[in-house]
Amino acid sequence: MSDFDSVEEDAVQEVVDVEVELEDKVTLIGEFIRDNSMSGNLTKAEDFIDEPFSLEVDEVLPLLEELKGREEFSDIIMKKGAETIYLFSVNYITLNYAKLMILVEEKDFFKMIAETVREESRIYPRPTDIKLFSKAPFKLSRDEFIQVYDELKKKEEYMDIKETRASNQALYLYSDKYMKNAYARSLAEWVEVEAEQNP
Question: 6 exposed, middle or buried (CB, 10 Å; 0-12, 13-18, 19+)?
């Protein structure tokens, strides 16, 4: 074999090695995102800069773009937040739940509360029990919720978010874009009081 053939063979081998390495990195990234999603967690783009990946910052986006183009990873969704890119698998986390998780992660509590209330009013339709915001993914204490809600009430863009109370004083929220006060109040009363009396 001539020196030229040997150099050419080495060059081909190098290209193959790079492709295999890329293939492996993309597969590892995809599996990492799925494992995180299975545990109920979002993955951030910067997670790949840390161990075990230790990627350079400028390596991350091209690898994520490559991942996005792969058929076998079509369950993985990329969402751009205010400060980073979030990734998750829809096999384990629904789009709606991921959207709320991102709002929680970014501490956009006004939007988180308003969008949850609007969605429940529009889809089900039902008023939202404020106790919902103490559960995952929100995990706000009652005091934190009241503080955020008091501020939210003063903001122009959330004027459709209204409150109603059942006769036991349980507080529910609804959006008057999608529900009338009387209907929201009667549903809150049913959940809090009448359902107990009519098992």
Answer: exposed
